[in-house]
Amino acid sequence: MQGLMQDVPLTLDRLFDHAARWHGAREIVSRDADGRVSRTTYAGAHARAKQVSNALRAMGVREGERVATLAWNGARHLEAWYGAIGIGAVLHTLNPRLFPEQIAYIANHAQDRMILADPGCAPLLETLLPQVPSVRDVIFLCDEAGMPRTSFAARDYESWIADQSQQAAWGGFDERLAAGLCYTSGTTGNPKGVLYGHRSNYIHALMTLQVDALALSARDTVLLVVPMYHANAWGVVYSAPCVGAKLVLPGQRLDGASLHELILSEGVTYSAAVPTVWQMILAHLKETKGNLGKLERVTIGGAACPESIIRTLHDEYGVDVIQGWGMTETSPLATVSHPTAEIAALPFDQQVPFKLKQGRLLCNLDLKLTDDEGRRLPHDGKTFGRLKIKGETIASGYFGGEGGDVLDEEGFFDTGDVSTIDARGYMQITDRAKDVIKSGGEWISSIDLENIAVGHPKAHLCAVIGVTHPKWDERPILLVQLKPGESAEKRDFIDFLDGKIAKWWMPDDVVFVDEIPLGATGKIDKKLIRQRMQGYALPFDGTSR
Ligand code: ADP
């Protein structure tokens, strides 16, 4: 017997319709390219998104065609986003921080039909466009006065939509249609396209709104630091409109001072970002002796969150840090480190070890740990293995069939992460499979070492990589970027780590560098570090372990 409930397709346009109708006056605040702050509302952005749909239709854009954006977080980007997906086009977010050759590869692979870009991306497009013949039109997300000079033909967004009607039919298609395309940054091999569906992103938005996930509400003001081109800004592009949270979109200015200014001036209560962003904000606060205003809680993810960030935000600014884990292929949020009832009853100090774990699984998903042969491993908090995941918000393959069959015989996707799961269900990443340091047949977690080392008061950023060792296969070395104006000796870091880690985990060398490079999504770029450290030789006598 079938249920007798209404069968309405889960298409994402409905979320923005809902925001416009029921939270229409809630603000969307953007920092524009010139640094000025502009304001609209959900109702205003919705009306303009409809104009975008009509402008796209007038250009002949059809269902399933890829409409690319090359832009920072801003209201026009959001309008273009919903304008495209509302008519069944596939919104393809290009990451402006990638190298032009990578973007060209991705845009060609996706066969992008057109690009909507921030004016600041004009020089990048000059290099890019001759390499991507599928792109027929370029729209700059600005008005006529803000148009950059280019050698190619382009239009400004404002005049492009100006004459279009604010009425347009959205949705009415199968909820399984593709809505968004986002390429993984390709830390190994070529980037691969993750193709989100309307249904999968809709379900992900509802999952992530739970109190034990992002817990967004109508009372929140969300500073969306995580870029919209990074897995839909962790799905907040969809979840914030569901509840009518005020959105603060910081554009390209992601330095500590600019973000701090928005936190205070807009009364931000919640924010989502990778750890390096908080390092910058905290450094700025220390320098200026500032405070964080109304900020209550932050989700930190994308890379492991150092303990020093969790403690400083809690102890000095009264802000609760919740760690989240996921990847482009998991929509992205999959585990969140909220406390269980038992852990919440403990003093803060005893909660910290659980905040350092990547957290417990959201509903609808399943996780398992396996060895290299695919045999399941126990959830005892000690045994680590390959982390695999399953559910309706998890990729079943890549765009264009890249990478072949990615699911195991039980339908699980291999995340490429190595982790443990404890008896309470807390997952903890040991490392990425390719970053873990294999020393004498045992594994050293580069993440653990980095997170402890960065707690040194003089450290700005720390990275640990494995280098070849004749006896132990690999040994860890610690790279340190000191805070401006600081100086330190290798010994300072070795002494700092002593007693905090197993003896055989002690890095064989400490190398001070001017810069620890960050990748296109703000994470430490180990691939580049390894390249830069080619030719490096351990200064050792071979007795380190
Ligand atoms: P890529 O960086 O390869 O493009 P993603 O941006 O999707 O891919 O990053 C996903 C990866 O980031 C995960 O597989 C994991 O290794 C890492 N990651 C994400 N969140 C966390 C976290 N909270 N702690 C540790 N690692 C994390």
Task: From the structure above, extract its key features.
545 residues, alpha/beta, GMP Synthetase, Chain A, domain 3, nine-stranded mixed β-sheet, seven-stranded mixed β-sheet, 25 strands, 23% strand, globular, binds adenosine-5'-diphosphate
3D architecture notes:
The mean pLDDT is about 95. Helix 1 runs parallel beside helix 9 (about 235-245) and helix 4 (about 100-110) packs across helix 5 (about 120-130). Helices cover about 30% and strands about 25% of the residues. The protein is globular. Strand 23 (about 460-470) and strand 24 (about 475-480) form a beta hairpin. It starts with 12 loop residues before the first helix and ends in a 13-residue tail after the last helix. Among the domains are: about 10-30 and about 40-205, Rossmann fold (3-Layer(aba) Sandwich); about 365-430, Luciferase, domain 3 (Roll); about 435-530, ANL, C-terminal domain (GMP Synthetase, Chain A, domain 3). It is an alpha/beta fold. Adenosine-5'-diphosphate (ADP) binds near residues 185, 187, 323, 417 and 523.
